[in-house]
Design goal:
Blueprint: E1 2-3, E2 14-16, E3 19-24, E4 27-32, H1 43-61, H2 66-77, H3 83-91, E5 117-124, E6 128-134, E7 147-154, E8 162-163, E9 167-168, E10 175-179, E11 187-195, E12 206-211
Antiparallel strand pairs: 1-4, 2-3, 3-4, 5-6, 6-10, 7-8, 7-11, 9-10, 11-12
Helix pairs in contact: 1-3, 2-3
Amino acid sequence: MAILDESMLVGASGKIDGYVVYKVGKKTYARKSPRTIANPRTGGQTAQRSKLPGAQTMHRAARGSVLEQVYTIVAREEERLSGYHWFLHANMNVFGVDDYVDYPRLMLTAGSLQLPFGMRQVAADAGQLEVAWQDNSSTVTAQSTDRLMVAAIFDNEPYQPVVLENVRGCRADGKGCVYLPEGEWTEAHLYCFFGTVDGKRYSPCMYFSIRKS
Protein backbone atom coordinates (compact mmCIF):
# COMPACT_ATOMS: atom_id res chain seq x y z
CA MET A 1 0.00 0.00 0.00
CA ALA A 2 1.27 3.47 -0.84
CA ILE A 3 0.16 6.97 0.17
CA LEU A 4 -0.15 9.29 -2.84
CA ASP A 5 0.63 12.63 -1.19
CA GLU A 6 2.38 14.13 -4.24
CA SER A 7 0.59 12.34 -7.06
CA MET A 8 -1.79 13.35 -9.85
CA LEU A 9 -4.04 10.57 -8.47
CA VAL A 10 -4.71 12.40 -5.20
CA GLY A 11 -8.47 12.42 -4.69
CA ALA A 12 -9.08 9.72 -7.32
CA SER A 13 -10.74 6.36 -6.69
CA GLY A 14 -11.30 3.12 -8.55
CA LYS A 15 -9.17 0.52 -10.36
CA ILE A 16 -6.19 1.74 -12.38
CA ASP A 17 -3.74 -0.63 -14.12
CA GLY A 18 -3.88 -3.40 -11.54
CA TYR A 19 -4.17 -1.07 -8.54
CA VAL A 20 -7.09 0.02 -6.41
CA VAL A 21 -7.01 3.75 -5.60
CA TYR A 22 -9.15 4.91 -2.69
CA LYS A 23 -9.47 7.81 -0.28
CA VAL A 24 -9.61 7.68 3.53
CA GLY A 25 -10.20 11.06 5.13
CA LYS A 26 -7.88 13.53 3.40
CA LYS A 27 -5.37 10.91 2.22
CA THR A 28 -5.34 8.91 -1.03
CA TYR A 29 -3.97 5.34 -1.05
CA ALA A 30 -3.11 2.79 -3.73
CA ARG A 31 -2.83 -0.98 -3.35
CA LYS A 32 -2.63 -3.91 -5.72
CA SER A 33 -5.95 -5.41 -6.78
CA PRO A 34 -6.63 -8.63 -4.88
CA ARG A 35 -6.20 -11.90 -6.71
CA THR A 36 -9.14 -14.26 -7.06
CA ILE A 37 -9.24 -16.57 -4.07
CA ALA A 38 -9.46 -20.18 -5.20
CA ASN A 39 -10.66 -21.48 -1.85
CA PRO A 40 -12.43 -18.75 0.13
CA ARG A 41 -13.28 -21.23 2.90
CA THR A 42 -9.77 -21.97 4.14
CA GLY A 43 -9.17 -21.85 7.89
CA GLY A 44 -7.53 -18.43 7.61
CA GLN A 45 -10.35 -16.97 5.56
CA THR A 46 -12.97 -18.37 7.92
CA ALA A 47 -11.19 -16.98 10.97
CA GLN A 48 -10.85 -13.58 9.32
CA ARG A 49 -14.54 -13.46 8.44
CA SER A 50 -15.51 -14.40 12.00
CA LYS A 51 -13.95 -11.19 13.33
CA LEU A 52 -16.26 -8.78 11.54
CA PRO A 53 -19.63 -9.75 13.07
CA GLY A 54 -18.27 -9.42 16.61
CA ALA A 55 -16.76 -6.00 15.96
CA GLN A 56 -19.94 -4.81 14.25
CA THR A 57 -22.12 -6.08 17.09
CA MET A 58 -20.07 -4.31 19.75
CA HIS A 59 -19.98 -1.04 17.82
CA ARG A 60 -23.73 -1.22 17.27
CA ALA A 61 -24.28 -1.74 21.01
CA ALA A 62 -22.34 1.48 21.73
CA ARG A 63 -24.74 3.64 19.72
CA GLY A 64 -26.41 6.38 21.68
CA SER A 65 -23.80 6.29 24.46
CA VAL A 66 -20.79 8.46 25.22
CA LEU A 67 -18.70 5.86 23.38
CA GLU A 68 -20.33 6.76 20.08
CA GLN A 69 -19.31 10.37 20.68
CA VAL A 70 -15.75 9.23 21.49
CA TYR A 71 -15.54 7.31 18.19
CA THR A 72 -16.81 10.28 16.19
CA ILE A 73 -14.21 12.59 17.75
CA VAL A 74 -11.27 10.21 17.37
CA ALA A 75 -12.23 9.50 13.75
CA ARG A 76 -12.02 13.22 13.07
CA GLU A 77 -8.68 13.47 14.88
CA GLU A 78 -7.22 10.54 12.91
CA GLU A 79 -8.92 11.49 9.61
CA ARG A 80 -10.98 8.30 9.41
CA LEU A 81 -14.21 8.15 7.43
CA SER A 82 -16.34 7.63 10.53
CA GLY A 83 -16.33 6.37 14.09
CA TYR A 84 -17.49 3.01 12.76
CA HIS A 85 -14.45 2.73 10.48
CA TRP A 86 -12.14 3.76 13.33
CA PHE A 87 -13.56 1.10 15.65
CA LEU A 88 -13.21 -1.68 13.08
CA HIS A 89 -9.65 -0.64 12.19
CA ALA A 90 -8.62 -0.52 15.86
CA ASN A 91 -10.34 -3.68 17.06
CA MET A 92 -10.93 -6.25 14.32
CA ASN A 93 -8.11 -8.48 15.55
CA VAL A 94 -9.41 -8.78 19.12
CA PHE A 95 -12.45 -10.77 17.96
CA GLY A 96 -12.42 -14.42 16.93
CA VAL A 97 -14.42 -17.58 16.44
CA ASP A 98 -16.90 -18.91 19.00
CA ASP A 99 -17.58 -15.43 20.45
CA TYR A 100 -13.95 -14.96 21.48
CA VAL A 101 -13.00 -11.42 22.56
CA ASP A 102 -9.51 -10.48 23.79
CA TYR A 103 -10.79 -7.92 26.29
CA PRO A 104 -7.40 -6.64 27.57
CA ARG A 105 -6.46 -5.67 23.99
CA LEU A 106 -9.81 -4.06 23.18
CA MET A 107 -9.49 -0.32 22.46
CA LEU A 108 -12.85 0.78 23.77
CA THR A 109 -11.78 4.45 23.74
CA ALA A 110 -9.02 6.59 22.23
CA GLY A 111 -8.26 10.24 21.65
CA SER A 112 -5.86 13.15 21.99
CA LEU A 113 -6.46 13.67 25.71
CA GLN A 114 -3.65 12.22 27.79
CA LEU A 115 -4.08 9.51 30.40
CA PRO A 116 -2.61 10.28 33.83
CA PHE A 117 0.81 8.85 34.64
CA GLY A 118 1.09 5.61 36.59
CA MET A 119 -2.57 4.68 36.61
CA ARG A 120 -3.04 1.60 38.81
CA GLN A 121 -5.57 -0.43 40.74
CA VAL A 122 -5.58 0.26 44.47
CA ALA A 123 -8.44 -1.95 45.64
CA ALA A 124 -11.20 -3.99 44.06
CA ASP A 125 -14.11 -6.20 45.01
CA ALA A 126 -17.40 -7.20 43.44
CA GLY A 127 -18.91 -3.82 44.28
CA GLN A 128 -16.26 -1.27 43.37
CA LEU A 129 -12.88 -0.50 41.86
CA GLU A 130 -10.49 2.08 43.29
CA VAL A 131 -7.70 3.45 41.08
CA ALA A 132 -4.91 5.97 41.63
CA TRP A 133 -2.58 7.98 39.38
CA GLN A 134 -0.14 10.85 39.25
CA ASP A 135 -1.67 14.20 38.41
CA ASN A 136 -0.19 15.38 35.11
CA SER A 137 -2.49 18.35 34.55
CA SER A 138 0.49 20.62 33.88
CA THR A 139 1.01 18.99 30.47
CA VAL A 140 -0.44 20.43 27.25
CA THR A 141 -2.95 17.64 26.63
CA ALA A 142 -4.35 17.38 30.16
CA GLN A 143 -6.41 19.57 32.47
CA SER A 144 -6.97 19.33 36.20
CA THR A 145 -10.74 19.16 35.68
CA ASP A 146 -10.67 16.17 33.31
CA ARG A 147 -13.04 13.62 34.78
CA LEU A 148 -12.60 9.91 35.23
CA MET A 149 -15.02 7.83 33.17
CA VAL A 150 -15.46 4.06 33.11
CA ALA A 151 -17.01 1.75 30.54
CA ALA A 152 -17.75 -1.85 31.50
CA ILE A 153 -18.46 -5.10 29.68
CA PHE A 154 -19.95 -7.86 31.82
CA ASP A 155 -19.46 -11.53 31.01
CA ASN A 156 -23.21 -12.18 30.82
CA GLU A 157 -23.48 -9.48 28.10
CA PRO A 158 -20.12 -9.98 26.29
CA TYR A 159 -20.78 -7.53 23.42
CA GLN A 160 -22.59 -4.82 25.39
CA PRO A 161 -20.31 -1.98 26.58
CA VAL A 162 -21.95 0.24 29.20
CA VAL A 163 -20.69 3.62 30.40
CA LEU A 164 -21.12 3.52 34.18
CA GLU A 165 -22.73 6.46 35.95
CA ASN A 166 -21.55 6.03 39.53
CA VAL A 167 -17.94 7.18 39.02
CA ARG A 168 -15.99 9.61 41.21
CA GLY A 169 -12.71 11.42 40.52
CA CYS A 170 -11.01 14.02 38.35
CA ARG A 171 -7.41 14.28 37.21
CA ALA A 172 -6.32 16.66 39.99
CA ASP A 173 -7.62 14.26 42.68
CA GLY A 174 -5.01 11.65 41.89
CA LYS A 175 -7.52 8.90 42.64
CA GLY A 176 -11.00 7.76 41.74
CA CYS A 177 -13.62 5.13 42.40
CA VAL A 178 -16.28 3.37 40.37
CA TYR A 179 -19.20 1.52 41.90
CA LEU A 180 -20.43 -1.44 39.92
CA PRO A 181 -24.10 -2.31 39.49
CA GLU A 182 -25.54 -5.49 40.89
CA GLY A 183 -26.46 -8.18 38.43
CA GLU A 184 -25.96 -11.76 37.27
CA TRP A 185 -22.40 -11.24 36.14
CA THR A 186 -19.28 -13.03 37.31
CA GLU A 187 -16.54 -10.97 35.67
CA ALA A 188 -16.49 -7.28 34.73
CA HIS A 189 -14.07 -5.86 32.17
CA LEU A 190 -13.46 -2.20 33.04
CA TYR A 191 -12.03 0.49 30.76
CA CYS A 192 -11.00 3.66 32.61
CA PHE A 193 -10.57 6.80 30.54
CA PHE A 194 -10.81 10.57 30.91
CA GLY A 195 -12.93 13.23 29.25
CA THR A 196 -12.90 17.00 29.30
CA VAL A 197 -15.73 18.78 31.08
CA ASP A 198 -17.13 20.05 27.77
CA GLY A 199 -17.04 16.57 26.23
CA LYS A 200 -14.91 17.61 23.27
CA ARG A 201 -11.87 15.42 23.92
CA TYR A 202 -11.29 11.97 25.36
CA SER A 203 -8.32 9.77 26.23
CA PRO A 204 -7.30 6.18 25.50
CA CYS A 205 -8.39 3.66 28.11
CA MET A 206 -6.70 1.59 30.79
CA TYR A 207 -8.00 -1.96 31.31
CA PHE A 208 -8.85 -3.57 34.66
CA SER A 209 -11.03 -6.53 35.59
CA ILE A 210 -13.00 -7.69 38.62
CA ARG A 211 -14.37 -11.15 39.42
CA LYS A 212 -16.99 -11.97 42.01
CA SER A 213 -15.74 -14.36 44.63
